[in-house]
Amino acid sequence: MVFISSSCGFNLYNFYVCFQTFIDQLDGDVVSVTRANPLTRESMILVAYTAFSAPPKNFKRPPHSIRAMEVEGEVMHLVFEGRVLPTSTPFTKDESFLTGVPCDQEWREDLPIDKSEFVQVLKGNRMSRVEFTNLQPGDVVAFK
Predict the structure, then answer these.
(1) 16, 8 in Cβ contact below 8 A?
(2) What are the structural domain ranges in the chain?
């Protein structure tokens, strides 16, 4: 999220503009956050598939089982997409401070939207339809 905030700060998203922020729960596990600049009408959308516990072994959500998003305008750029992967590193609890569960990750950023492994964008006249083709627990994708 820090990446998005700093990216927005350098691309005409600044503190002098009253931003519009929209949050949409696409289903029980998937949320989207849209940050819009009313002056430039540019938006950045982040979609996250929450994972508060490990999914069942070999779990794979079927393609297109998450409600598609209708976005005004044209979705042109993949800011980033990432995936949390299981690891064989065992979890060790530390009595002094809070630690996270060890994991590996895949990360891709700054790509044309058609190179996304998680979404497919269908372009219309004034709207774009974002379909979730391979979003799994722990995945996150941001586009504009």
Answers:
(1) no
(2) 2-85+102-143
- 3-class secondary-structure state, position 125: coil
What is the rounded CA–CA span in Å between residue 51 and residue 9? 29
Q: What is the pTM of this model?
A: 0.79
Q: How do the pLDDT tens digits run along the chain, 144 residues long?
A: 444 444 455 455 455 566 789 999 998 899 999 998 888 888 999 999 987 777 777 888 888 889 999 998 899 899 999 998 878 888 888 889 888 777 888 999 999 999 999 999 999 889 999 999 999 988 999 999
Pairing of strands 42-49, 69-72: unpaired
- What are the structure tokens assigned to 34, written together? 């849209």
In this structure, the number of other CB atoms found within 10 A of the CB of residue 93 comes to 6
